[in-house]
Amino acid sequence: QCPLGFMGQQCEYPTPVTMPPRTEDASPALIAAVVLGLVTLTLLVCAAIHVLRQLQWGRRLAAISGSVKNDLETVNNRNAVIGGGG
């Protein structure tokens, strides 16, 4: 009697390893769901990047327009105190 995993008269040959039967490959529906999920995730990431860039651009524009407005208010106030202006 040979130990487990060996065969032959003097147990000199290893027994062939039997591979378990392959189960069915991934179904087409599963593949389609994964692909659709990846596409959706990609679109969400692109949309988030776009929104963040728009917010950042809007803040930059607001800072520029706010500084111009503040400068004009300062000039108007100075003119009112001095008595100049139109």
Would you tell me the overall average pLDDT?
79
Q: How many alpha or pi helices?
A: 1
Helix content: 55-70%
C-alpha Rg, in Å?
A: 38 Å
Main sheet? Answer: 2 strands, antiparallel
What form results from the Cα inertia axes? rod-shaped
Structural class assignment: mainly alpha
- How many beta-strand segments? 2
Question: Which parts are unreliable, with pLDDT below 50 for 5 consecutive residues or more?
Answer: none
What is the terminal-to-terminal distance? Answer: 116 Å
Strand order of the largest sheet: 1-2
User: What is the N-to-C succession of helices and strands?
Assistant: EEH
Strand content: under 5%
